[in-house]
Amino acid sequence: MHFAHGLCPFPMKTYRYQLSFTTPAFLGNASQQAQWRTPPIKGLLRQWWRAWVKRDRYCGVEETARL
Question: What residues contact residue 44 under an 8 Å CB cut-off, 6+ apart?
């Protein structure tokens, strides 16, 4: 099903967050120079998300499962 621009019944929501790292963030390239790259950030967020969801599911909190 295709919708004209702006007519989608389920518009995309945008969220903005400010994050600070509590674990080391290895953000560098092959030359050992600092470089902001998306894959390491996504990997760290995925790791913490999985830890959070697993903890909540095994502790009986069901609200997280609906996210």
Answer: 21, 23, 25
